[in-house]
Every structure is written in structure tokens, then in C-alpha cells.
């Protein structure tokens, strides 16, 4: 089975499809876009790493459009930036000489040709939402993977602290099992995301990342903590848990 998952992971890493991002073609101001995403999906989209940035850019057609993302200036320290869903960027992709609107109330971030720019909220642009879906059906890890790929795109990866906060936001809307499956799997020698997401961010619990788990304890779950920050744990892949798709 590990060989099969390795092959699937390889194919997905080439496919470049991430439906955690939803492209909305109806232009809106930044605040209107935020309201729209929060009402229909989870929030305005964060950009966790270079891989996400490249995939977002490939979704834009034509490629020279201005696109709102969930980037907003920190009101308590205007030299810093935050994501709409919480947390701060860990990587920055500003164009040279950006951000440059400190005194002009250019407090919102948009994407253009793979770079970030700041702008006033009053301008209308198309935008990206972030979407995570909590499924309250109890399934094994492999059944959850199959369900997500049939009805959504994949079992969810967690690429940053901000994505963790956004997933927690969705979990708070549901009465779930104490742990929920995510797309984390121990394949030969390491823990990997089955959608091909890079492992730039980790949030293992008190026991840390298992380096040599038991043969059955090779599937990753998110511990739902009801207010405090969720953590990852290794679980028996045959357990039946709720899960998160995107």
C-alpha cells in the first residue's frame, strides 16, 4: 500500500490542482470580498509559500489581472501585515519597492503577475477565497481520502499557522470526533501530504513527530481542542473519524 500512496503522491505533485482556493471573477472591494468569502467559504485566501503562489498564478486567466488576497495591514503596527484569517505571513512576495502606501491608506494586499502590491480597499478586483469542508461522517483514513477525492478535491493539508486557524474556524461550526483526519501520511521514511503540499509548517503535539511509527499508526489526524490551537497526532489508519476536505 505504501508504494501505491507514493505513486499517487508523485502524480498529484505534478498535477498542480488545489481547490482549497476558489477564484471569484465578480470584482469587489477588499472588504466586500472578505464578506463574500466568509459567507460562502472560509475566508479570503492566504498564501502560505511559493508553491501556493505559483498555483494561484496559474489559476488566473488572463494572467495579468489584479487579484485580492487576504493580506491586510496590522492596525496596531502599520509596518506589519496579517492574514484575514489570522496569523502573519511567514514568507513575503512583495514587488520591489512595495508596500509603498504607508501614508496613503493602502492597507490591503493584491496579487499581480506573481508579486504582492498594496492598495486602497475602494478599488474593485477579482479575488481568491480559501475553502475547507468538515465532513461529519466517520470513515477510515483511506475511506476519507476516497470520499474527498470523489466529492471535493483531496484530504486537507495544513500549510501554515493561518491555514490551521482557518480549519479550526470551520471545526468550531460542527460537533466532530475528538480527532479528525487530515491528508498527512507516513510514507517510506517520512511524513508527507498526499496532495503534494510541501512540509514547510508542522504542528505536532506533545510527543513530537513520530520518526518510526508502528505499522498501523501511519495516518495523521488533527486533535480538536475546542478553543486552543489544534495539534497533529499519528493514529491507526483504521480508526473511524470525521475529516476535513478541500
TrEMBL record:
Keyword hit for Signal: yes
**Keywords, comma-separated and alphabetical:** Signal
Q: Identify the stretch annotated as signal peptide in this record.
A: 1-19
UniProt keyword annotation of Signal present: yes
**What Pfam families does the record point to?**
Lectin_C (PF00059)
Looking up PROSITE patterns in the UniProt record yields: C_TYPE_LECTIN_2 (PS50041)
SMART domains xrefs: CLECT (SM00034)
C-type lectin domain span: 21-130, 129-246
Q: Which domain of life is it from?
A: Eukaryota
Protein name stated in the entry: C-type lectin domain-containing protein
The species is Oreochromis aureus (Israeli tilapia)
